Amino acid sequence: MAIHRFKFSTELNDKIQIFANLHMYDETFKETFDEWCETPEMSELIAREDAYLSRHNYRTNTKHKIYRSIKYYYVKKFASHNITNEHKQRSKPNKISKDIMDTIKRHLQEEFNKNAAFKPSETFDEFKTIIKNDDPLIKKCYKNQYYQIKNKMYNVNVE
Fold this sequence. Notes:
By secondary structure, the chain is an all-alpha fold. The chain has two domains: 10-81, no CATH class; 98-146. The protein is built from seven helices and no strands. The chain has helices spanning 10-23, 29-38, 40-55, 62-81, 98-114, 120-131, 136-158. The model has no long low-confidence stretch (mean pLDDT 82).
């Protein structure tokens, strides 16, 4: 049965990973790869891999297959793993002050007392004039609080 996809032997795979990690940023990657393949140890490993693959009707040049794997898979894999957590900065969650949150809750409660079927889009413009702030985060919090209060009222009525 012919092989169309395969994994390299464990020994060769280990060598490939080491090479990819060391030379991922080399400008002369192709030349370095050719020199690496000509070393006695790698020549023997590649010859064994080639013999195995030819026994299983794999017709692609093994050295070319190794090069493509390193260049387009292993280098990208190691480049993405080399970004350490120190360089990744988590964004801090945006928070609204407690005063504004309390104002939102009071305003929504008043609106629910007037008309339980109101929509937050209808009352938010009025609320903006009260707090004199047009932050999109406030709008999001306003709508979230509306749905939380509405669901709490609905759940109380159902029970």
